[in-house]
Amino acid sequence: MYEFSDYMLFVIILFSSQLIVHLVNIVVPAPFIDEIFHIGQLNHYCAGNFTYWDSKITTPPGLYVVTLFFVPILDSIYGILDVKSSCSLETVRYLNSFFTAALYLISVKLMQSLHENYCSSANLKNRAMMQLTALNVTIFPLSFFYTFLYYTDVLSLFLVSWTYLLAKLHYYNCSAFVGLLSCCVRQSNIVWVAFSAGCALLDQVEMIGKRNDIARPLELVSLNKVIGILWSDFGISKAVLRTLLSYILVGIGFVVFVFKNNGIALGDRQAHQLSFHLVQVCYCMVVFLVFNIAVLLPKLDIYGLLLFAKRRKMLFSLLVIGSTVSIALFTYAHPYLLADNRHLTFYIWRRWFMAHWSAKYLLMPVYFLSLTAVHRTLEMHSFCWKILFWLTLALVTVPNRLLELRYFIIPYYMWRIHAKLQCTKTLLFEFTYSMLINCACLILFFYKTFSWPDEQHLQRIIF
User: Where found (predicted)?
Assistant: First the structure.
């Protein structure tokens, strides 16, 4: 159940987000980067033309369909504020603020479901810790910034988190349906639908194990016993299959889409080809570390790494050699990364990775430490769940040739809500740190401008 304070925070997030959108509309009234394509496509939909498709748009039309559904609501709300038209960029930018505020409520529910051992109405401190964690993932800088632009990222995160929440609450058919909607916003969300299905399966396996007095059924030593029960008892197997059926149908639908579309991306396929960009997992871990030093910095075990290198020299040497080869063979610099100076990744790549040929190898200790730190925050989860999480994270990051920080939003969210519950002091530091980054990024966006010869409007810097 939600507390009064949850609704208060919902309102605060909603109105503060809308205030910032209002400022963005004043400072940046013209479409910015991908907004040019999104608002152009939306205008065709608003005019009733559903056959036109911009070949530069890579994602499905879910964002535009959802926007059309909300247009009458936006029109009634913002009509009194003399906002131009319900399909104007100025209006639809407000849409993401609703999804960001709703994300907080979903996150609170997820925290209660995932950390139910700590959730008790009698323990107000633990309740407050969950609320603060939910607030922190809601204002995570990478996703929170796109609340103020007409992008797909916030809606995508909202739908994926809702899909997962419904799965944890055992509403599997509803979960699969919302998961299908999430795939209509971004194709890569099919991986998170599979993750939700996998977690639903693990929940079923755990219940079967408990009914049959199997201790820790999701650990490797006990898993074979559960599999034996599933194999021998048709009734139980049928119940498990029924749980997964709706997810399987979504998966089949996605496979049909890929075959009909001759690929995953809808448009601009030349620039969005699948690759084996193994180092993306390393970049993802560094992003986790940089944006959440409050949780991960205490988990960095430099002494442990040195001790491991000393005691397990052969294994450590193999890891170093394997990592060096992977970085050498599977590091890609996408043309967009090298050409677009409106993204922070452009400057990171230019000033670090291109500074010297050895720069990319010097980050190996950071990769090791951040990866182990993230893994240590998940130590309370079962062996099977951790395998599922890391496999999902790899599947959603490795195929991307382009280094784009937005690709790490959902992986970060899923890690953070599953991480061990932190103390109030750590959570307050995390909140303050995130707010400082959010403020710095907005100041940079508002005040750091430059011109492009072939662009009419001033250019700005975003993630």
Answer: Endoplasmic reticulum membrane
